[in-house]
Amino acid sequence: MKVIPVDATRLTMLVVTEPRAQLKDGQPVLDRRTGRPMWNLDVAVIIEGRADMTTLGLPEGGFPKELGAGGLIVPELMVAIPWAKPERSGVMTRADAVKLEGGRAGLKAVSG
Question: What is the CATH number of domain 4-101?
Answer without folding.
Answer: 2.40.50.140
